[in-house]
Every structure is written in C-alpha cells, then in structure tokens.
Design brief:
Blueprint (H helix, E strand, L loop, with lengths): L2 H15 L2 H18 L10 H24 L3 H15 L8 H15 L7 H12 L5 H12 L2
Length: 150
C-alpha cells in the first residue's frame, strides 16, 4: 500500500475519532502530495521516495516551528507541532542511530578510498543514495566531516 493510501486511511480514522491534531497533520501531508503531483501541470504518480521526502519535509517544518515557539516561551503552540511530528513519523522508515550512520560512513570512506575533505561530495553522494530517508542530511554531513578530518 502506498504512503498516500496509508495517509488517507489514517485520515479517515482521525475523522472518526475526532482527533483534530492528527487530522490537521494528515491534511497538510495530503495537500503536499497533491501539490507535488500537479507541480509540472500534468498529474503524475509519486514514487515512494518522493512521498517519503514530502513527509520528511513536513516533519522538519514542524520541528523547526516547535523550536521557534519554545525559544519564545510558547509551549502552548509548540505542543501541537510536536504532536503532529509524532503522527507523521509513523509513515517514515525507522531512523538509523548515529553509531550506525558512523559505521556506514566509515565503510564508505574505506570503499571509495576517500582522502580528506576534497572527497566529501563523493562520500555524501554514496551515503545519501544508500541511507536515503533513514537519516537527516545534516547529521550525515556532520558525521562525514568529522570522519574525513580525523
């Protein structure tokens, strides 16, 4: 079952249970899916990777918003944002731990024989293509930098 179908099913459940926070988050994702499908003017089906990226973007937006709200002392606004993050994360693949990413980066550096920061782009390309949606790009980047400068 595609992520779009899963979102629609979860949306129906949220409507039945009158879960307004879940409904708001799921409607935003549905809207993002529709915008992505019609962005080129011609409706097309989204790949699983595109669907995951859309959901990741929605999660990141909510995390960033919650961080801003917390900095301003507005926990009342941050709480629903974080609740929406928890709902959306159900649709994402399980994230790798920092240790697992570090192990994968070290293996990649060895495999492609990377020699310092000049090879960061090569390492990032390989790691991003293999890990993809299982880790945040910023985290991968910081780990690659750390490993290449040792």
């Amino acid at each position: 079952m595609s992520l779009q179908q899963q979102v629609m099913n979860k949306m129906k459940e949220a409507m039945k249970s009158k879960d307004t926070i879940a409904l708001q988050a799921l409607r935003a994702v549905k809207s993002a899916f529709l915008l992505a499908k019609t962005a080129s003017g011609v409706p097309k089906e989204l790949t699983n990777e595109q669907e995951i990226k859309i959901i990741q973007k929605q999660v990141k937006q909510r995390i960033d918003s919650a961080a801003v709200f917390l900095q301003q002392g507005r926990e009342d606004l941050a709480t629903p944002e974080l609740a929406e993050v928890a709902i959306l994360e159900e649709f994402l693949p399980t994230a790798l731990s920092e240790e697992e990413i570090t192990d994968f980066v070290n293996a990649t550096i060895t495999d492609i024989n990377a020699q310092g920061m000049k090879d960061m782009g090569k390492v990032m390309g390989v790691v991003q293509s293999k890990i993809g949606a299982q880790a945040d790009g910023k985290l991968i980047s910081s780990i690659v930098k750390k490993q290449l400068t040792q």
